[in-house]
Write a structure and sequence with these properties.
Length: about 270
């Protein structure tokens, strides 16, 4: 049986000036603009026919604070589709508490890079399907990488970054996703720092390179400007296409994206 491809709205959540949770949208993980209320947006996407929903606390890790579990609980009460939560998850106990708050999956980036054994601990305790490894990838055109792709006629590798792409780790993305898969990651959430918020399409060389390297399901993220970009991501091997701006600002609905894909032979849930 052919597995359906998934369309996944995502909200990036931070604390506003009054310390209240708010959704923000930016470009290249910068110049963030207030977009809406996280619980209301989750409710809207649940009703719109999204296959899954992603909540990212975008400054929890950088600020060294805990994930907004009270907001996660409120969202879990509103959505009846799989909910992935990321940001500020550092320990097995954090994984446990986030799942207890209502998440179906946790997305881990920084802590997994720092302590890869966390992947195994999470998978063994809660099942691989609960552990999503998030990768914030950035293009590098130097000779420090391990696995290279052709990008615009040049040889390029992809570096794992942290703190919203502001800090490189020196870790090659392709080597890292292979290692994460071997340790029990159930899914890979691949963000492109270069494409984020541009609406010019996913980083297809990145998506293709990751999908070719692993058998674990891959969520393509960053850069979606329309249904045609989701189609390109699926043609590159992705199992799910994540988008934010086009849904947040009403450029396209989830239904419109799915109908476009269905008309072109992509299996989706309508």
């Amino acid at each position: 049986m052919t597995l359906t491809k998934r369309i996944v709205p995502c909200i990036d959540v931070d604390l506003d000036d009054e310390g209240e949770p708010a959704v923000y949208t930016g470009v290249n993980f910068q110049d963030l603009e207030h977009t809406g209320d996280p619980v209301e947006m989750a409710r809207r996407y649940n009703e719109a026919g999204a296959d899954e929903f992603v909540f990212l606390d975008i400054t929890a890790s950088a600020d060294g604070r805990e994930t907004m579990l009270d907001v996660v609980e409120s969202i879990a009460d509103e959505v009846f589709i799989p909910l992935t939560v990321g940001g500020g998850i550092r320990t097995r106990e954090d994984v446990k508490e986030t799942l207890r708050a209502g998440a179906d999956k946790v997305s881990i980036n920084t802590a997994a890079l720092q302590r890869p054994a966390l992947i195994e601990a999470g998978a063994e305790a809660f099942g691989s399907q609960s552990v999503v490894i998030s990768v914030d990838a950035k293009r590098r055109f130097d000779e420090r990488g391990e696995q290279y792709a052709r990008v615009d006629g040049e040889s390029c590798w992809f570096e794992c970054t942290v703190k919203g792409g502001r800090e490189g780790t020196g870790r090659d993305v392709i080597e890292w996703v292979r290692a994460a898969e071997a340790r029990g990651a159930g899914e890979l959430f691949v963000n492109s720092i270069d494409a984020d918020g541009t609406k010019e399409g996913y980083d297809l060389p990145l998506t293709r390179a990751v999908c070719d390297a692993v058998s674990t399901p891959v969520i393509a993220s960053s850069g979606c400007g329309g249904p045609e970009h989701a189609l390109e991501a699926f043609e590159a091997g992705a199992d799910a296409a994540l988008a934010a701006s086009i849904f947040h600002f009403g450029t396209y609905s989830v239904r419109e994206v799915k109908e476009y894909l269905h008309e072109r032979g992509v299996p989706v849930r309508l």
